[in-house]
Specification:
single chain; 390 residues; alpha/beta; 7-stranded mixed beta sheet; binds S-adenosyl-L-homocysteine
Length: 390
């Protein structure tokens, strides 16, 4: 089999079972592996370390499939997908909308599988994952038996991998345009073909419920609202008033439909840039009891951390200024390049500059369908804080 031989000492992270091999760690290759093919990883001393998928165009030149010497074949994907689905059946048995496979953290680098009832959305983001598309789709059909498998391999990271986007029907009937998904006792319309990610932010499920429990009689500001995940839950939790800010007109249209679908009162909707709109609200001397900040990924990699830090600080500072005494800020970062520790530091700096004293009352993360493998701390991309200002 084709091999990648590592430079001296570069086997250490693999021995801790970290599943990424960076191009700078490789001394030489043997054979002529093509993109996505399986390669064996060996140390300088010739010790076998792992079998991995080769991504010649990526800085992460190989991603580990397994730590045993073995064939990677259709049966491998069947078994791994079966294990991942079993975890969700055990921990989130009653959820219609759930992430079934969370990439590296489920031993399947580059593979994300989301379920919306009978519809499966598959997102592939590495050469290895794309090479096995058919085997993965077969395994999903066998394990999950869905009506539809729709591919949404169009994430921004594909460019870094030298891969072309691939979107469309893989198996079964086309997904319905206006599909409804139930989450606990609220309903959302999800557009799996055009929406963000696979159509909905499944990772915020627990945090939406957390907000709902805090919202009663409160004036709530939902920044970066998308299709209203937090807004609908604030209204369902009997918020006195909700204001949503979002730059996408299409997302706001869907937010309004989602509010209507749940027979809740319409919120105040502001179509605009959160950075500017928060300043306008400040200039109008508006204030709120509860503010949610759920921005997009400002730092996809650690490379962008500095610029991202300024953006996080700016919005958190403005939010602190808009909070009434005793008010709550629920603030998130979904940037892989910003650690939980760094995020907390940025928020602390924002509070200081805003001249408020705040306490952390809870740490938030994604739900159990986004597990974090202990050997892959990068899996913890979503981190949030609930803060109370004095
Ligand atoms: N809170 C949402 C998910 C938010 S995703 C949920 O739980 O479903 C981030 C959203 O921010 C996207 O909808 C994107 O369109 C929007 N967005 C990105 N940059 C923005 C900006 N500068 N101002 C306002 N909205 C922005």
């Amino acid at each position: 089999m084709n091999r990648l031989v590592l430079k001296p000492g570069r086997e250490k992270s693999l021995k801790r079972r970290h599943p990424w091999i960076f191009s700078g760690a490789v001394a030489k290759g043997t054979g002529e592996p093509k993109a996505g093919e399986t390669v064996e990883i060996h140390s300088t001393n010739g010790e076998f370390l792992a079998v991995a998928a080769y991504s010649p165009q990526s800085q992460i030149v190989a991603r580990v499939w397994d730590w045993q010497k073995r064939e990677i074949d259709a049966a491998f994907f069947h078994k791994r997908i079966e294990q991942a689905v079993a975890l969700r059946a055990q921990l989130l048995p009653d959820n219609e909308a759930v992430r079934l496979v969370h990439a590296e953290s489920d031993g399947l680098p580059g593979i994300v599988i989301d379920r919306y009832g009978e519809i499966i959305v598959l997102q592939l983001s590495s050469a290895g994952a794309m090479r096995w598309r058919d085997a993965i789709a077969d395994a999903i059909e066998a394990v999950v038996k869905p009506q539809t498998i729709f591919e949404r391999s169009d994430a921004e990271v594909l460019a870094l991998e030298g891969l072309a986007a691939s979107v469309g029907q893989l198996r079964g009937a086309p997904p319905p345009m206006h599909m409804q998904v139930h989450e606990v006792d609220v309903t959302f319309e999800v557009d799996v073909a055009h929406g963000h990610k696979s159509g909905f932010y499944l990772d915020q499920r627990d945090n939406r419920l957390r907000l709902r429990a805090l919202a009663k009689d409160k004036e709530v500001l939902d920044c970066f609202s998308y299709t209203g995940g937090f807004t609908v839950n604030a209204l369902a939790g009997s918020a006195a008033q909700v204001t949503a800010i979002e730059s996408s007109a299409l997302a706001l249209e869907m937010l309004k439909r989602n509010v209507e679908l749940n027979k809740l009162p319409q919120p105040e909707c502001i179509e605009g840039d959160v950075f500017q709109e928060l300043r306008k609200l400040r200039d109008q001397a508006r204030s709120f009891d509860l503010i949610v900040l759920d921005p997009p990924k400002f730092a996809p990699t650690a490379h962008h951390a500095e610029k991202a830090a300024r953006a996080y600080k700016d919005i958190n500072l403005l939010a602190f200024k808009l909070l009434r005494p005793g008010g709550l800020l629920i603030t998130f970062s979904c940037s892989g390049g910003v650690s939980r520790e760094l995020f907390q530091k940025i928020v602390a700096g924002a509070a200081l500059d805003a001249g408020v004293e705040a306490q952390i009352v809870a740490h938030l993360s994604a739900g159990a369908d986004h597990p974090i493998a202990l050997n892959f701390p990068e899996g913890e991309y979503l981190k949030g804080l609930v803060l109370r200002v004095r």
